[in-house]
């Protein structure tokens, strides 16, 4: 019984850790989208659509481990470069 309870507790802890990590990633994305919108004086919805269209969201997903350690200004510059490289105009 101890092993079973221990196993279930470990599984639950891993699920909670995964959920916590997912929340951190989502929060970071929201911050980046809002900051991008602020920098370019557009709505958050427009910023998200632009970043989605020109692969900025994909870039943030793929490079979260590095990007979230940078300053917001550096992250915005990276997003601008990625989106311009994919046909964006900002």
Q: What fraction, in percent, of the residue positions are helical?
A: over 70%
Mean of pLDDT: 91
Q: Which regions are unreliable across 5 or more consecutive residues at pLDDT < 50?
A: none
Structure annotation, total helices: 5
Reported for the largest beta sheet, the result is:
none
Distance between the termini: 60 Å
Coarse shape: elongated
Q: Which band does the percent of strand residues land in?
A: under 5%
Element order: H for helix, E for strand: HHHHH
Gyration radius, rounded = 17 Å
Oligomer, anyone? single chain
The total count of strands amounts to 0
What class would the helix/strand composition place it in? mainly alpha
């Amino acid at each position: 019984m101890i092993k079973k309870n221990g196993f279930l507790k470990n599984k639950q802890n891993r699920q909670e850790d995964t959920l916590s990590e997912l929340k951190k990633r989502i929060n970071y994305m929201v911050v980046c989208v809002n900051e991008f919108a602020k920098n370019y004086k557009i709505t958050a919805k427009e910023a998200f659509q632009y970043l989605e269209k020109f692969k900025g969201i994909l870039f943030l997903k793929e490079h979260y481990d590095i990007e979230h350690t940078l300053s917001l200004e550096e992250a915005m510059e990276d997003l601008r470069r990625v989106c311009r490289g994919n046909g964006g105009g900002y």
